[in-house]
Write a structure and sequence with these properties.
This protein is of the alpha/beta class and about 550 residues long. Helix content is about 30%, strand content about 25%.
Length: about 550
């Protein structure tokens, strides 16, 4: 009988029914350390997110989204960042309606697109504008942020247990429904919890509960965690702490000093612990990778002029201590010094995803830098479904054209899609890097590729014009000791040297065009030489390469 049972079990395991059952019930999407990179794994395979975020209100109407889905697919995205609002799923307390979410999932699946769900719960861009009406109208039960002179604001207080618990219940129900409807298909691969939290126009909440907490001691659990990794915390946080005396206990002002930054750190802790309750409740239902995002600081702005208390670089370690259920923190980067901001979030304990950014040619260069030099799991221009005004906090940062108006990102994603497995493999092996030029002040750039050094300079484009302010980037995937696949964004000239032992001079052995189809092996085009390579002295990349889905196979050698 035992033998018969084992044979029957073996036959079932090998049957098509069992194979289908296993295929439909894989482990959920997760983050996994693969060699030198932390990567997103979807349905058992590493996944490189070629993303775009739609406008805030687009996903509230399925009919509006009907013509949007095919446009997103045509732009070569594989992932769409889609808001879902608390007011939409729980219009009456305790009564949930997931029809909109189900329709969005159907739309994404019909176009073979993955989704990062953006939970607009208690906060969106500091405001509580996406909470249900029953929350908005009951200011006694759901306390608001108060200004120093006692005026109310349209922001739920992070000190409101009632708001926290109601948000957590709604988010948990959302994740329970999502697991039931999408656990096998894995359309949704990650979830953002809240959106750009923080206090404006003052640097902290002055409600009675907040005043009491600010006058009290810094929580012991935060101090213990900061002390345990004192030498590894963000330099700005460590400097503030040590300048105030490096104490192990005391009030917020005692420990971090009497500054606006201290008030921002205070708010960061309380936003983090609020978000932790919400995130943990959702993960208990369906443990997808979860994160929250940061609206960054404009130059010379003080807390309260920006989203005070958000997960800014100096507050990352506070969020790590206060919200351990979050898998990572993500920056929304619209500023010119992209490398500076992105690099502060690419940490061993924090894989990089940029959920909001500028698109266009500058966005394409930034994406290459993110994937190539920072091991990013994803990049996402905002407003990918059309034009609109982006607001961070209380100030407009300008028109962000995307969608049909952003061929640069569409072309880049078309080029990267067939390269994605190789990019992921190179991230894991540490054999990928990108050199980027940011703004007119940076006239040239230099980076290491294997045993060689590459120098990058802007060059004239196909129209014969040189743009001295353009942002350009070249990404190198090393495929052998002296061989590289090169992908560019912008018009530039590359030259090569070496500083490693051996023959002192680097030369170009060969350059071959590589045309990358959606499927199948690349087609080799021309062997470039002569005038096209400056008689073998350099490699020219053009802004039109991505539109042609063209990369280059570069072979170098050394001589005396």
């Amino acid at each position: 009988m035992r033998l018969l049972f084992l044979v029957t079990a073996l036959l079932f395991a090998l049957s098509p029914v069992a194979v289908v059952a296993q295929a439909r019930d894989p482990a959920p999407p997760r983050l996994e350390q693969r060699g030198k990179a932390t990567q997103l794994v979807v349905q058992g395979k590493p996944f490189l997110m070629l993303g775009g975020e739609i406008h805030n209100s687009s996903s509230s109407d399925l009919a509006y989204m009907t013509p949007i889905w095919p446009k997103l697919k045509a732009m070569n995205l594989n992932t769409v960042l889609v808001p879902i609002a608390w007011e939409t799923i729980e219009p009456v307390e305790g009564q949930f309606d997931f029809a909109l979410l189900d329709g969005l999932l159907r739309g994404a699946r019909a176009h073979d697109l993955k989704v990062v769900l953006l939970w607009f719960g208690a906060w969106k861009n500091t405001y509580s504008s996406y909470v249900p009406a029953w929350v908005k109208r009951d200011q006694t039960r759901f306390a608001r942020v108060l200004t120093a002179d006692g005026r109310g604001t349209e922001r739920l207080s992070a000190f409101s247990d009632a708001a926290r618990d109601a948000d957590a219940r709604a988010f948990a129900r959302l994740m329970r429904h999502l697991k039931a409807m999408d656990g096998a298909q894995q359309t949704v691969i990650s979830v953002q919890v809240e959106n750009e939290v923080g206090v404006i126009p003052q640097s902290r909440d002055h409600s009675p509960a907040a005043e009491a907490a600010f006058a009290g001691p810094v929580p012991a659990v935060l101090m213990e965690q900061l002390a345990a990794k004192r030498t590894r915390i963000h330099p700005e946080l460590r400097t503030a702490w040590e300048r105030a005396g490096g104490r192990g206990a005391g009030t917020w002002r005692d420990v971090f000093g009497d500054t606006g930054m201290t008030e921002s750190l205070f708010m960061a802790w309380h936003y983090a612990t609020f978000i932790e309750k919400v995130t943990a409740a959702g993960k208990a239902e369906y443990a997808l990778p979860m994160f929250t995002n940061a609206a960054l600081i404009r130059p010379n702005y003080q807390p309260g002029q920006y989203n005070s208390g958000g997960p800014l670089p100096f507050a990352i370690d506070v969020y790590k201590a206060g919200a351990p259920s979050l898998d990572f923190l993500a920056p929304d980067i619209y500023f010119e010094d992209y490398v500076n901001w992105a690099s502060q979030y690419a940490r061993p304990d924090n894989p990089l995803l940029v959920p909001e950014a500028r698109g266009g040619p500058a966005g394409a260069a930034n994406a290459l830098y993110s994937y190539g030099s920072l091991g990013a799991i994803g990049f996402s221009p905002f407003g990918i479904d059309g034009e609109g005004v982006v607001l961070q906090g209380d100030a407009s940062i300008g028109l962000q054209a995307a969608g049909e108006g952003d061929p640069a990102m569409a072309h880049l994603y078309g080029l990267l899609a067939p390269l994605a497995p190789r990019i992921l493999d190179a991230q894991a092996k540490g054999t990928i890097s990108t050199v980027i030029l940011e703004g007119g002040a940076q006239r040239s750039g230099r980076g290491r590729i294997g045993d060689y050094v590459v120098d990058v300079q802007r060059a004239t484009g196909p129209d014969g014009k040189l743009d001295p302010l353009s942002r350009v980037a070249a990404m190198f995937l090393q495929t052998g000791p002296d061989e590289f696949t090169v992908v560019g964004a912008g018009d530039m000239q590359l030259s090569f040297t070496t500083d490693r032992p051996g023959a002192p001079t680097a030369g170009i052995e060969s350059v071959d065009e590589q045309f990358l189809g959606v499927t199948g092996a690349p087609r080799t085009g021309r062997r470039l030489n002569g005038d096209e390579t400056g008689q073998g002295q350099g490699l020219r990349l053009f802004s039109t390469d991505a539109a042609d889905r063209k990369a280059y196979r570069l072979r170098l050698y050394r001589y005396r």
